[in-house]
Amino acid sequence: MSVTTASGIDVHPLDLRAMLKEAGITALVIFALAAALVGFETTDIPGGIGINTRFDDVAVVVALGFFGRIALILLRVHRPGPVLIGAPVLVVVMLVMLLAQSLFGPETGAAVQRFLPFQDPVVLWGLLFVTVVIGIRAYLSRRHIASEESAQAREERLDHFAAQVQHAARFLGPALLAFALLFPFLPAANRHLLDIAILVITYIMLGWGLNIVVGLAGLLDLGYVAFYAVGAYSFALLATYLDVSFWISLPFAGLMAALAGVILGFPVLRLRGDYLAIVTLGFGEMIRVILLNWYEFTGGPDGISGIPRPSFFGIAEFSRSSDNSFHDLFGLEYSSLQRIIFLYYLILAMAMVVNLFSMRIRKLPISRAWEALREDETACRSLGINPRNTKLTAFGIGAMFAGFAGSFFATRQGFISPESFTFIESAVILAIVVLGGFGSQIGVVVAAILLIGMPEFFRELQQYRMLAFGMAMVLIMLWRPAGLLAHREPTIRLFGRGKSLESKS
Amino acid sequence: MQNSFAYFVDQLINGLTLGSIYGLIAIGYTMVYGIIGMINFAHGEIFMIGSFVSIITFLILGMAGVTWVPLALLIVLIVAMLLTSIYGWTLERVAYRPLRGSPRLAALITAIGMSIFLQNYVQLLQGARNKPMQPVISGGVTVMQDQGYVVSLSYMQMIIIVVTVVLMAAFTLMITRTSLGRAQRACEQDRNMAALIGVNVDRTISLTFVVGAMLASVAGLMFLLYYGVIDFFIGFLAGIKAFTAAVLGGIGSLPGAMLGGLLIGLIEAFWSGYFTVEYKDVAAFSILVLVLVFRPSGLLGKPDIEKV
């Protein structure tokens, strides 16, 4: 039974018993989940393992689950009042305790902080964030916004937002590029920042490469890192065995990776989506296992070291003492930063090539065929598109870009080993594509900066990085299965049915 | 030595033991696939959690002074099944149920996300190092002796095989004789139709996850007892191999999962015994690819016909 108030919002009568029962069940489930894994900690002691107890943490987690559930129920029945009082109080209390050391001085602060439920600041800030989110939702439901919005309306709103972002990308993209071009000469840019930037751009490039496979062609590839590995090892082996320079082996590395993609793809691309994902995962692991065990050729777990650094297009070397060194050529002072800046521009250029390629190929028949295959394979088959060959091109091109990125990785690190090419890397790249929204170029940039750049800046986050990855992948899929900034409009439509952004421009 | 019959029998025993563990995990994959058509990628993690719950319970029992092995084993078995099944239930409730009816790939990405999350959750809570455990059950019987090569069947291996057989029998009875099993089979055939005739579909799917997690937790306990060391990453490889087993046997088919598990275990044991240990994982993956390419419906599965 529900009563409709003058403002048109349903106010359900509050059934206290049902509410307590629901919250109680939640608490019970959380207790069962936490009892063993949170409540006890296995520790290393000489000659085996011992065990520590953490019952206080279990109690806190259970209490949080109980009250969190009550808050959500209250929001569901449009009685946000208690939440509106409780959440800000909790936020203030937690903020005071978190900042106690700087507010009351170190000694009193430490004494206050002893009452905190967890000692780990990241967990506490995460908790604070969740509380703030619940508080904001309570405030919004009080203002009669959102809340009862239908799922479809929300989906449309988000899609509209994504479309706007993509529209803005036309101005945002060049602005970002200009910033990236100027970045090394900004006063704030130091060695550390440049290294992070190079890493982020490498992942952006990988994300864009995978986006062709996953976003455009709709093939879920869980072994993308295998092609990255093929590229890296192609260059490393060529350079160390045959003494071939970076610039000569770069195309070769791309070719090798594309070849690997085609060879691996040929037998499996006719499989249905989820099977394909698992098989690509298997291939990724197989390549890693082979690299790990082919000791005579690849150095096994020791990897390959002493991979040469790239020269300035074969004209000059980045070294202090060389006949034709870069700083002499341009009449500059020698600085070790010159090589880093060169690497930065190199990866930026390579990434932009991938970007340009995937923007332009959308206008070609092959990309139209990819998109059509993604939407309906059976229909494509009946229209005479060869699904396997079409998919193979997407797979091979995606692999080629991974190969390029791989040889850049090898030359930048100077050392590679199978350690760098685990499934987790594939998952990270996939997470970037998924979070950014399949097929969205700017989304990949945003996701790469968030997922790769942030943890580099905040070292404390490092150990929570993969946990957050996993959680983000789940939450985004639950909230918006198409991806955060996805705007899965086909590039072209028949007779302008449904206005696409493209037809407007 | 490799030519002797005894060596062959030794590998056979190893393979059957390993295969039992894979088979128990594979049932979880195949049941979930049968009923909601998704690959529950996080199932390997459920297995890993099962073995962590087991080791923690063993340690607690050790401190509490329960030293009589059969009793300790029974308690650990019950606790592990109970707590792990709640993980399976929560997994479905939180991550998969809201996505029912969305594209397959969305569900698969969620499952991968859950797998990464659970791995790191356990790593953060329990540490990244190996967790070794003293052998609980030792000793065995000599089966045969040939050219100086002694083949023994350890009590541990016997327990693993016997427990697997008993569980499989109980499980088959549950599927064929009980109302839950009937509901499960009905949902597998046609979820809408089952709902129309009064089967509680949501509850049945939840229970499928619970049962799958229970079997996986037993596999986790066996793994812990057999190898004596676990870490937060064991679920990944074991999960993929069990999935391979499910595909090999024909995904969706319960006897197929068990058969596939045994075959994968045997192949791995013989490969390690006669070729190279290093490439045993490559062998498992190659089988997965070969089966999917040449016989996607597996050994005992029904062919999957796509209708437009």
Summary of the model, kept short:
The complex is a heterodimer of chains A (505) and B (308). Chain A has helices spanning 16-37, 55-76, 81-98, 100-104, 106-113, 121-142, 151-182, 191-216, 224-242, 246-268, 273-293, 295-298, 326-329, 337-361, 365-375, 377-382, 387-413, 423-436, 441-457, 465-479, 501-504; strands spanning 3-4, 10-11, 40-45, 48-53, 304-305, 415-416.
What does this structure look like?
The complex is a heterodimer of chains A (505) and B (308). Chain A is mainly α. Chain A folds into two domains: 149 residues, no CATH class; 331 residues, no CATH class. Helix content of chain A is 68%, strand content 4%. Chain A contains 21 helices and six strands. Chain A has a two-stranded antiparallel sheet with strand order 1-2. Chain A has a two-stranded antiparallel ribbon with strand order 3-4. In chain A, a hairpin with a 2-residue loop joins strand 3 and strand 4. In chain A, helix 8 runs antiparallel to helix 17, helix 14 packs antiparallel against helix 17 and helix 15 crosses helix 17. Chain A is globular and about 75 Å long. Chain B has 308 residues and is mainly alpha-helical. Chain B has one domain. Chain B is built from eleven helices and four strands, in the order H-H-H-H-E-E-E-H-H-H-H-E-H-H-H. In chain B, the strands form two sheets. A two-stranded antiparallel sheet of chain B has the order 1-4. The longest helix of chain B has 32 residues. Chain B is globular. The mean pLDDT of chain B is 86. The interface between A and B is large, with 58 and 69 residues.
